[in-house]
Amino acid sequence: MPVLYPHRPWPATPNGFMNVTIQRFDPRERSSTPFPDRVRILELELTPALAEWAETQAVLTPDEIARADRYAIERPRQQFLTVRTVLRLVLGARLGLAPQAVPLSVTPDGKPYLRDGADFHFNVSHTDGLGLIVTAPVPVGIDAEPLRPMPSADGLVERFFALAERVQYRQLPVEQKLPGFFKGWVCKEALLKGVGCGARGLEHCVMDMDPQTPARVLGLTGCAAAMGPHWSLQVWQPTERHLAALALQDHECISENRGLPSPVVCPHSPEERETSRGADQVA
Ligand SMILES: CC(C)(COP(=O)(O)OP(=O)(O)OC[C@H]1O[C@@H](n2cnc3c(N)ncnc32)[C@H](O)[C@@H]1OP(=O)(O)O)[C@@H](O)C(=O)NCCC(=O)NCCS
Fold first, then answer.
1. What end-to-end distance do the CA atoms of the chain give, in Å?
2. CATH code 3.20.20.70 for 145-260
3. What is the pLDDT along the chain (283 residues), one digit of tens a residue?
4. I need a labelling partner for 69 at 20 to 30 A (CA). Which of 84, 132, 234, 276 fits?
């Protein structure tokens, strides 16, 4: 495995940033209670053995099974199946429903949601052996990408990123371009998944592409602005091989009167980040 990031600018967990609980989760052990009373991220190691276990749970709906069967390649099929199974177990436990009865639906843009409404939000990502499931009291998006050499990075930025991102990326020193590319990519997708507009919003959100600075949103327009401008972002490395980002609607900043719990410190300034650092414990 090539060492792409000898300087390791990213933390191993997002806990220093806001009140996030993060845990390595093996659903076969069931030793924990992964309920979304606050922001909670479950990291799954997506192995063939876990996929076999997931199949034995038999909690997927016929539509989901048909969807899994449409994957032409076995590994992504298993990853979808495993993450969807664990998602159903987690949501079922939270809602007091059998996993098969969790009323999952999907928006026209592809965002899964709970049909009957719920007082929490969730999102998932699965890639290259890693699954992430996040639950939160506010809209949330999560994304992970495997870190790898990307000869096509410059071209992808020119094709898919917003003008301001392209300008910033072009000005990065050559050794910062690949970390900047991955940082921008995971932040963009996490944010777009939080808002729900998916790839439709690629050019409508501007992320800070500098890998040396804290992740932040620099601008939102069009569908990406549908839920307002206040989003917190954090990038971390759940494994040596993956970079991940969490996008969380900044509820303490905008919705003090909505009766939500108030665990999140708005991470707008370095001082505030510092104050919140260390306030959390890994569950
Ligand atoms: C969702 C999307 C934004 C990212 O998908 P991805 O990175 O390929 O895959 P991930 O595993 O991270 O995420 C997939 C999950 O996102 C969720 N998702 C899909 N569309 C979503 C949306 N509009 N909003 C929120 N979540 C969504 C689903 O739960 C999906 O998992 P599931 O199929 O098991 O239900 C996808 O729409 C996409 O098209 N990405 C590619 C965009 C692109 O070209 N980027 C290039 C930048 S260089």
1. 30
2. no
3. 444 554 456 777 775 445 566 667 777 766 555 454 578 899 999 999 999 999 999 999 999 999 999 999 999 999 999 999 999 999 998 899 999 999 999 999 999 999 887 778 999 999 999 999 999 888 999 999 999 999 999 999 999 999 999 999 999 999 999 999 999 999 999 999 999 998 999 999 999 999 998 899 999 999 999 988 889 899 999 998 999 999 998 755 443 333 333 333 344 443 443 433 333 322 2
4. 132
From the CB of 83, is ligand 1 less than 6 Å away? yes
What distance in angstroms lies between residue 126's CA and the mean position of ligand 1's atoms?
A: 9
Q: What is the CATH number of domain 20-142?
A: 3.90.470.20
Domains 20-142 and 145-260 agree in fold? yes
- CB 210 less than 6 A from any atom of ligand 1: no
> Is 185:202 a contact under the CB 8 Å cutoff?
no
- List of residues 6+ apart from 52 with CB closer than 8 A: none
Of 125, 207, 223, 246, the one to substitute when testing ligand 1's pocket (max ligand atoms within 8 A of C-beta) is: 125
DSSP per-residue letters across 126-190: EETTEEEEEEESS-EEEEEEE----TTHHHHHHHHS-HHHHHHHHHS-HHHHHHHHHHHHHHHHH
